[in-house]
C-alpha cells in the first residue's frame, strides 16, 4: 500500500509540472528563436572565418570549413582569369629525342715504336689539322736514314762509272774495235745499277718518313680528349688506345628518329631543296643549346619502332655541345597559316571532349567544343566544333572549375598580350598534338551541378592571389568538398 501511494504521488507531481509548462508559451517561443538563430548564425560565422583564412596554406585552407558550398555570394560572379582568342601562323614541328655525335672521330696513334719524349698538347684543347701533339725519340730513325743515304751514295757512284764505261764501249764498237756482245753486257750492267739506285732512294724516302712519324700531328681539327699515355712511356704502333682522341665538334652532328607518318613530307621538302630547321634543347626544355638543319636521312625505316633516323648538323662555335650528349630535338615541318589560337591554359578536357569556356559580353559563360590542331609555345591552335569562335573572344584560363553554360563570372585578370610564335611540338603519332605541360582541372560544366558563388570577402582575397595560389586554393576546395561528400 505504501508503494502504491508513493507511485500515485509521483504521477500527480509530473502531471502538475506538464500542466505548468503548457501554460507558459513563452518557453516554447524562446526555444524556437534559439534554433532559428543557430541556423542563421552558423553559415555566416563559417564564411567569415574562411574569409580571414582564404590565402592558400593558411589555417582555413586545411580546416574542415574549407568545404563550404559557395553560398552567400550576393549575386556576384565567380572570379576567373581570361585570355583572348587570336589569329596567327602556327609553326608545326616534331619533337624527338636525339643523341649528339661528333662529325668525325680520330684516335691519334704512334706510327713508330719509341719512347715518348714530349707532349705538346693540353687535354680538352681545340687544335687544327697538322698541329704538333707529341714527339717520340727519333735517334733510331735518324740512324736508319743515314744508313740508307750511304747505300744510295755508293750505288750512285757505281752507276756513274758503269755509264762512262758504256760510252767508251760504244765508241769502240763504232770503230769495230770490240765485239757487240761486250757493249750489250755493259748496257745490262748500267740498267741493273739504275734499279739499285732507285731502290736505295726508296729506302732513303722510307727512312725520312719514319723519322717524320716521330713527330705526332693532329689528323683532323677538333677537340682533344684525355691523354692515354704519360711522358717517358714506350709507345708502339699497335697500341689500341693510342695517345689521344680527337673529335670534330664544329659542326656537331645529331641523330634522332621521327615517326614514319612524317616521312613523305620530309622527303618532299628535301627533294625540293628546302631546309628543315632543327633546334636542340636541354633535358628540362628550358635552354636552347643549338640550331641547325637536316643534312640527310637513313635509307630504311626501323620496323620495330616505325621511325626513320635523321641526321642534322648543329652550329657549335662556342663548343658547348659534346659527343654522346642527350638533347630534345625540335624539327620544324610546316607553318599553318592564319589559325585560331587560344592560351594553352584555356583548353579544358571532359566527357564531351576538349572545349573552352567563352565569356559572353554579359559576363556569363558558354562552353565551346574545339578540335586541337597544334601547340605553338603558349598558344594552342583550335578549330571550333558546331559553333563559332572568333578572334577577340575571351576564354577562361583560370577558375573554370564549377562553371557551366549560363554561369556568371567576374574577370579578375585579363591577358591580352599579342601571340608570339615559338617552336611547337606535335605528338609522335601525328594524329593530335601533345597536351600542354600544365592544364587547369577539367570543368565539370556538364555534371548538372548548381552554380555556386564565392562570398564577397573571399572573392576579394582570391582576386589578389597569384595564378598559382588561386589554382591551389580551388584545388583544395574541391578536395574538401569531395571529402565532405564521402563523409556524408
Tell me roughly what share of residues is in helical segments. Answer: 25-40%
Strand residue content: 25-35%
Give me the strand/helix succession. Answer: HHHEEEEEHHEEEEHEEEEEEEEEEHH
* CATH architecture heading of the domain at 71-91 and 338-487: Beta Barrel
Q: How many distinct beta strands?
A: 19
Structural class: alpha+beta
Distance between the termini: 55 Å
Output the radius of gyration. 46 Å
Assign an overall shape.
elongated
Q: Assign the CATH topology of the domain at 71-91 and 338-487.
A: conserved putative lor/sdh protein from methanococcus maripaludis s2 fold
DSSP helical segment count: 8
Structural notes for this entry:
- By secondary structure, the protein is α+β, with helices and mostly antiparallel strands.
- Among the domains are: 71-91 and 338-487, Beta Barrel (conserved putative lor/sdh protein from methanococcus maripaludis s2 fold); 138-213, Orthogonal Bundle (Helix Hairpins), CATH 1.10.287.
- 33% of the residues lie in helices and 31% in strands.
- The chain contains eight helices and 19 strands.
- The protein has helices at 2-22, 25-52, 59-62, 139-174, 180-212, 263-271, 456-463, 467-487, and strands at residues 78-84, 86-108, 114-119, 126-127, 132-136, 215-217, 222-224, 234-235, 244-259, 277-281, 288-302, 307-314, 326-343, 348-350, 353-359, 365-376, 379-384, 394-398, 409-415.
- The strands form two sheets. The protein has a six-stranded antiparallel beta barrel. Strands 6-5-3-8 form a four-stranded antiparallel β-sheet, with no helix packed on it.
- Helix 4 runs antiparallel to helix 5.
- It starts with a helix and ends with a helix.
- Mean pLDDT is 78; it is low at 1-10, 39-74 and 421-452.
